[in-house]
Amino acid sequence: MPSILPINQNWSFTQVGGGEANADGEWIPVSLFPTSTHAELVKLKKIPDPFVGLHEWDVQWLGEAVWGFKTTFDVTEKELAEPNVDLVFEGLDTNAVVELNGHKLAETNNMFVSYRLPAKEHLKVGTNDLLLTFPSSYLIGKELEAAHGKGALWNGDSSRLHVRTAQYRYGWDWGPVLLTTGPWKPVYLEAYDVRIDDLRVSTKVDESLAVVIDVTIALSSEVSAKASLVLKDASGKALNTADITISKGQGSASLESKAGELELWWPVGYGKQVLYTVDVQ
Q1: Cα–Cα distance between 177 and 46 in angstroms, integer?
Q2: What distance in Å separates the CA atoms of residue 268 and residue 251, rounded to the nearest whole number?
Q3: 195-280, superfamily in CATH?
Q4: Nearest Cα to 96, choosing from 147, 46, 36?
Q5: Which of 98, 124, 192, 239 is most buried by a 10 A CB count?
Q6: pTM for the full model?
Q7: For 67-95, how does the pLDDT look when each residue is reduced to its tens digit (9 = 90+)?
Q8: Residue 239: exposure state from Cβ atoms within 10 A (0-12, 13-18, ≥19)
Q9: Concatenated DSSP letters for the chain?
Q10: What digits encode the pLDDT tens for the residues 181-196?
Q11: Quick count: other Cβ atoms within 10 Å of Cβ 56?
């Protein structure tokens, strides 16, 4: 039976090697999760509020430091009995090294994507250790810029163009320079046999205003299966259905509606912005 275990408890963080945030080897419990270095240190009054006055310049050292976040979590025999057990990170800001029970699972470099890491072979029944180490994305950007050259831009440090992170972190006309770091979105363990790996929905409206909705589905393994497709309106009412036959992990289906059966989405001032839901199980 598939299960999801949120990993949102027992987290602590440190400035690796010690520094202005903490002594070498000292780990500080976080106040919430997900989180970031700036959010935690402001609450602890270890740094001033960077949104007050010119305090942003008093916290620039955070962006050049190395940070660690760690936790422990328990895994049951039932969870480990599933064919697949993945560690899922919905968002890591930005460069990070992921270690599970002392084994390096991945190095990440993109704040905007999620990472799904197969973890079963390194998990154990009972308590497991998870460590995230965040090197300075700012300094990594500087190294990449030195290797590949400067890009054209109108504001902020030009090295930001080499880093897949929120560009406003480097300062904008409406915000301060705050080079944040940390697990900024949820982390969880997912145990399963087969899962929906990808679901794509595309719509076509012809000149008569008839609508065709094309749906493609991909599973995590090359199995044969059946799936049901339901189109729902904003109230949850089912408007159209179809069956999907999946072969070798791939399947597709289409839903057709005559002109006037579905309300179209219009730009502001021209009509309503009607949304529909496609549900696949």
Answers
A1: 18
A2: 36
A3: Immunoglobulins (2.60.40.10)
A4: 36
A5: 98
A6: 0.88
A7: 999 999 999 999 999 999 999 999 999 99
A8: middle
A9: --EEEE--SS-EEEETT--SSS-TT--EE-SSSS--HHHHHHHTTSS--TTSTTGGGGSGGGGGS-EEEEEEEEE-HHHHTSSEEEEEES--BSEEEEEETTEEEEEEEBTTS-EEEE-GGG--SEEEEEEEEE--HHHHHHHHHHHH-PPP-SSS-GGGGGSBS-GGGEEETTEEE----B--S-EEEEEESS-EEEEEEEEEE-TT--EEEEEEEEESSS--EEEEEEEE-TT--EEEEEEEEEBTTEEEEEEEE-TTTSPPP--TTTS-----EEEE-
A10: 999 999 999 999 999 9
A11: 17
User: pLDDT, tens digit, for every residue of 103-144?
Assistant: 999 999 999 999 999 999 999 999 999 999 999 999 999 999
CA distance 142 to 63: 12
Q: Which residue, 50, 91, 79, 45, is CA-closest to 183?
A: 91
Rg of the chain on CA atoms, in Å: 24
Residue in the structure block whose two tokens are 């598939």: 2
* Distance in angstroms (rounded) separating the CA atoms of residues 89 and 34: 11
Q: Which two tokens stand for residue 240?
A: 């159209």
If you search the block for the tokens 């890591």, which residue do you land on? Answer: 92
Distance CA 194, CA 223 (A): 9
Which CA distances in Å does 260 have to 17, 230, 233, 236? 65, 19, 14, 19
Every domain of the chain and the residues it spans: 3-191, 195-280
Nearest-angstrom CA–CA distance, 189 and 191: 7
Q: Which pLDDT band holds residue 273 (cuts at 50, 70, 90)? A: very high
Topology adopted by domain 3-191: Jelly Rolls (2.60.120)
